[in-house]
Design a protein that fits this description.
Length: about 140
């Protein structure tokens, strides 16, 4: 089954669409509240192996913790980049989340699969997805 990687899962609306079209989904999300929501929303798809969720921020480097700015006024602005996560004077809180490079994510979770598509919507961090693609041969066909 071809795989779609949803980087910046948020509430899972895109992932739900991809799953409805018959694709497998690898969802990546830094915000632990959204990960928890996704685990509940996609529990049957996770159980049958069509969906996997990874709690991590895609970043320049890997590590046990990277600063993540949860925007309390507009949660889709949350980011590892303070310019995005705190913009326009919005309220925010800072937490530590696990981080990994995109090429490490592909090597761990997508090796040997056919990647159909990658959706990346991570405020200020999409460059890390592109950088990771340059370091690997695991790419969408």
């Amino acid at each position: 089954m071809p795989l779609i990687i949803d980087v910046g899962l948020h509430r899972g609306d895109d992932a739900a669409f991809y799953l409805s079209k018959g694709f497998a989904v690898l969802g990546v999300e830094a915000n632990p509240a959204h990960v928890k929501h996704g685990l509940n929303r996609f529990s049957s798809e996770i159980a049958d192996g069509r969906c996997r969720l990874v709690h991590a921020a895609i970043a320049k480097g890997a590590g046990a913790g990277i600063e993540f700015f949860i925007n309390l006024d507009k949660d889709d602005w949350s980011s590892t980049d303070p310019a995005f996560g705190t913009r326009e004077g919005s309220r925010y809180e800072t937490i530590s989340v696990p981080a990994m490079t995109f090429d490490a994510l592909l090597g761990t979770y997508a090796a040997g699969t056919t990647i159909h598509y990658i959706k990346s919507d991570i405020e200020g961090g999409d460059i890390h997805v592109l950088d990771g693609l340059l370091r690997t041969s695991t790419r969408p066909k």
